[in-house]
Design brief:
156 residues; alpha+beta; 4 helices
C-alpha cells in the first residue's frame, strides 16, 4: 500500500460516516433536501449556486429575508463544547431575490421545521414568507439563533 493510499484509508476509517457517504455519492443518493422545484439541470444548478454563494446568517441578523426556498444538507462539524465530530444540518435560506444565507444553527433548523409543519412547503405558499433571524442569549455565557416569521401589519 502506498503512503497516499494509507493516508486515505486512515481518513475513511476515522471520519464518521465518510464510507457510507462515499457509497451514497457513488449510487446517487445524496443527503440534500431542497424546496427548489424541478429535476432539470437548471434547477440543480440553482441549488449548487445557493450552497456555494451563501453568506452567513450570523452576518445578517435582524434583516428581513423574503424566504422563497430552502436547501438543507448534512455536514460534519466539531461540537463547540466537546470538540467531537457530529452531524448537523446546514440550512441555506434563499431569498426571493436569489440571495442565500447559510447557518448550522439547530434552533433555526427547529424553527424552519415548524414553518414547514404549519405553513406547508414553499411551493404551496402564496409568495415568499418574510422571516428574520435573531441572536438570543442562552442560559450561561452562550447564544443561539432563532428564525421568526414576520407578522404582517394588521388591517385597519
Amino acid at each position: 500500500m502506498s503512503e497516499t493510499t494509507a493516508e486515505i484509508a486512515t481518513i475513511v476509517d476515522t471520519t464518521p460516516g465518510l464510507s457510507s457517504e462515499l457509497a451514497n455519492l457513488s449510487s446517487g443518493r445524496l443527503n440534500v433536501f431542497s424546496t427548489i422545484q424541478g429535476n432539470d439541470f437548471g434547477s440543480r444548478v440553482k441549488v449548487i449556486n445557493a450552497l456555494t454563494a451563501a453568506v452567513p446568517v450570523a452576518d445578517n441578523l435582524d434583516k428581513q429575508i423574503n424566504l422563497a426556498n430552502v436547501v438543507i444538507q448534512s455536514v460534519i462539524l466539531p461540537n463547540q463544547t466537546t470538540g467531537e465530530l457530529e452531524e448537523v444540518p446546514r440550512i441555506t435560506l434563499i431569498d426571493a431575490d436569489g440571495t442565500a444565507y447559510a447557518t448550522t444553527s439547530g434552533p433555526i433548523y427547529k424553527d424552519l421545521k415548524n414553518v414547514f409543519a404549519i405553513l406547508g412547503m414553499p411551493s404551496n405558499w402564496p409568495g415568499a414568507v418574510p422571516v428574520v433571524a435573531s441572536k438570543e442569549k442562552a442560559k450561561g455565557a452562550g447564544h443561539y439563533f432563532t428564525l421568526s416569521v414576520v407578522q404582517p401589519p394588521a388591517k385597519k
